[in-house]
């Protein structure tokens, strides 16, 4: 008997001598994991098991794990951590609960115990295997900018959200609606977003409650193609999305674990076998976990164990075992060195490449994934170095996969929308024009069918100041009788408050269309037009008066008398050379710059003829100058030159298109001239307003009517009708749009926008 006792004692001593050195690690999990199956805890145990089997990292060493379970009680969490430290653990793997992580980290930092976290929170002096919150925020900002969200909502839960809302709001130029929610308020906030027609929503909540949120989305019937959801959780592939696959709802998220990687598949298969062997008694719970996917927290827990082992490998066995306690508050001698070695680890794990900087993970790869009809597919990736790279842009804007037919209304407006009148044209073939071409391009790029028809009242849309009711295309959109309105629609503040517009493709203003003044017909005596009739009368009178004066003065002057036959001395006869007819001929010859055979000899007649010659020179020069200008430039005078002239007269009527933006401009204007014009137009509604642009142009051609219209249409009309012209400049400045809609259910990617801009430029 004594011999047997001796042998057993010897064997125990020998086993102690050959036992491998033990590395103790501690892990903290939620309290409910102690009673129920917890997948991250199982993966943690598998990682330790696999590490002990792999002798390449820590040869001749056994890693032993100690687990503690905590609630949301911070005092209890501190006691549990102190218990682990008292056991002698060399690292603590803290939970993802950010509220408790701060308390755990404060103790570990005080005692230089490595605190390896897997949560989204950032704590000083800790090693966080979860990607840096700052970089993750950049990733979601890049996605928002790529999708061109100009208006979206954010649902976030305190202590669970990953987004830095302040950074997000400063980085995107969009209209944000941020709501803090809980599982009990999901329904009410979703109802609010639906009422406000917010169709782009970011879900930044607790992954454990996603099932409740998805159920509320179904109850609100917000699982249609026009809704886009961006989940911040990396576990989209673990959610039950069966009810969302066939409604074309857009659900997008990132994932940290590449399920298509061969190495990842091997590890997941091994985890599945380990799970079956260890948890045979929990078959029902095991079946709930998909073997093809892994939760992000579990994958991070696996990577954190190996990160610790790689860091420990660099310093072991030089490091001393931990002998610290919370009571002594003496830091572990080798703890700080171990933290530095862990911080220098570079490795590729389940969650991709891993590299740290000051305890934060700065090297990783996020796969951008999207829900399709039959599965979740990868559409791009994001890295801190290269940022967002979309590999499948067509999957964001699938052409032809959506079986959607939109009702589109329009209004005839040359050259934007015109109609073919013929028996062979039916349906959408009846319409053609600039806006119709744009609509066809949008439908082809986005992937939808449409039914194009005219608005019943043939109006763009204006708000009645008395009843507050809208008419025209705006009313059809507000009543949901149409999904889109296509045409040369002008943005106004009132319209923008009730419907959404696309980006403008040109700037324009209001101008005046008027008929070109008619020219006078050519007449036989049109050569007299350079000088006024009074001047011609004065010239004729001066001509007769000067001729008579020369005749009289010549009769009185002896120098103007001559011998008829100078050699006949017997019959001496004298004659005056300036008879009345000769005086007329001499004066007209001087006026015509031709001269004559008669030359004055007396001083008096020479003075008179000199004055007449100078007068003739001035008259002829003036007439020649006016005649050249009259023949080369036809003088046409407009009765009006600007809006002030139009408002200050009563002979010419004026008006604009009824229920259009131009009418609204004059009705709401505070400028006195425009207010006066509106009062006159409002008092003469039948004469002032027209139902169509064609009617207004026809009235302008009839004469004595000025039509106030948009400058783009005016330029188009003036170029094609030489009888019409523009009066003055622009009365205002505004922007022109191709189509508008009551909501933003149709999203157009950047490639289409570039195509549309090119077409608009052409």
Automatic annotation (TrEMBL):
Swiss-Prot/TrEMBL keywords: Cell membrane, Cell projection, Disulfide bond, Glycoprotein, Ion channel, Ion transport, Ligand-gated ion channel, Membrane, Postsynaptic cell membrane, Receptor, Signal, Synapse, Transmembrane, Transmembrane helix, Transport
Matches recorded under Gene3D superfamilies: 1.10.287.70, 3.40.50.2300, Periplasmic binding protein-like II
GO cellular component: postsynaptic membrane; presynaptic membrane
Annotated site, Crucial to convey clamshell closure to channel opening, chain positions: 640
Family: Belongs to the glutamate-gated ion channel (TC 1.A.10.1) family.
Disulfide bond residue pairs: 82-326
InterPro entries: ANF_lig-bd_rcpt, Glu/Gly-bd, Iono_Glu_rcpt_met, Ionotropic_Glu_rcpt, Iontro_rcpt_C, Peripla_BP_I
Site, Interaction with the cone snail toxin Con-ikot-ikot: residue positions: 667
Localization: Postsynaptic cell membrane; Presynaptic cell membrane
Ionotropic glutamate receptor C-terminal domain residues: 405-744
Residue ranges occupied by any Ionotropic glutamate receptor L-glutamate and glycine-binding domain in the UniProt entry: 415-479
Signal peptide: 1-19
Binding site for L-glutamate: 490, 495, 661-662, 710
Protein name (Swiss-Prot/TrEMBL): Glutamate receptor ionotropic, kainate 2 isoform X3
CDD domains listed in its UniProt record: PBP1_iGluR_Kainate
Entry membrane topology: Multi-pass membrane protein
Bilayer-crossing regions: 535-554, 611-633
Top-rank lineage group of the source organism: Eukaryota
GO terms for MF: ligand-gated monoatomic ion channel activity; signaling receptor activity
